[in-house]
């Protein structure tokens, strides 16, 4: 990845790069062939790889070497894929389709899906710990492990999922819905941005860390607002998952609760906030700006 090429041009190459890295990682993941195949079904069935791309984009701004970003990019994607497997389970969202293919519990069985999700979560942290030698110092590894663990657990994604379940059928105010979004979806996106910064040749200065954190928080919330818009306006074939599922399950969808115009304006405002947080970094921040536009303007 060179600084002369646009990130838009390089994103497809980076997706191929992380897919290859994940493929190799999963091929050595466990002794059970059935479990390995289930894990591969969950991870290698496509996907936009937005979180790994955010790691790479933030890493460029922080001056990180590309090879030093692969483990962080893989780890955050493994956590994301584990969360999708468990979200789709009958006890959770009970979905039959993910990324245009049968969900894992449909393709295999419910017990295998639970275990595969557990194994993906563990593999994420193993992958990151095993790559410690690629980081500038031990503090950077510790920081990445800490931010990923925080984003994955009860204070982040899992806590947000619990709030999502509790809110079903209710009409919470916008502040509570946005808090849930920031935990359920935003925390892992924020972690991806921060992990890219931690992999730099030298630890990011406090100002850069604060700017990355601000960007990650804004674009993480924006991602879920846009997801809710697409649940209303998209189509199943393009989304790769059932359109309208939030309405069917009476979940607190931003666009359904407050209207499409309000949701679109909120996404635009968050996009502008994310952009503004990087204003002083010029062309070095272009990859993150491109990612912000991609997240906000995507139609699937």
Textual characterization of the structure:
This protein has helices at residues 7-27, 33-43, 50-62, 70-87, 104-107, 110-130, 138-152, 157-167, 174-198, 206-233, 236-239, 245-248, 254-258, 260-277, 286-297, and strands at 97-98, 101-102. With 300 residues, the protein is mainly α. Helix 1 packs across helix 3 and helix 10 runs parallel beside helix 15 (286-297). The mean pLDDT is 92. The radius of gyration is 18 Å and the shape is globular. Strands 1-2 form a two-stranded antiparallel ribbon. It has one domain: Farnesyl Diphosphate Synthase, CATH 1.10.600.
SSE map:
Blueprint: H1 7-27, H2 33-43, H3 50-62, H4 70-87, E1 97-98, E2 101-102, H5 104-107, H6 110-130, H7 138-152, H8 157-167, H9 174-198, H10 206-233, H11 236-239, H12 245-248, H13 254-258, H14 260-277, H15 286-297
Antiparallel strand pairs: 1-2
Helix pairs in contact: 1-2, 1-3, 1-4, 2-6, 3-4, 3-9, 3-15, 4-6, 4-9, 7-9, 8-9, 9-10, 10-14, 10-15, 14-15
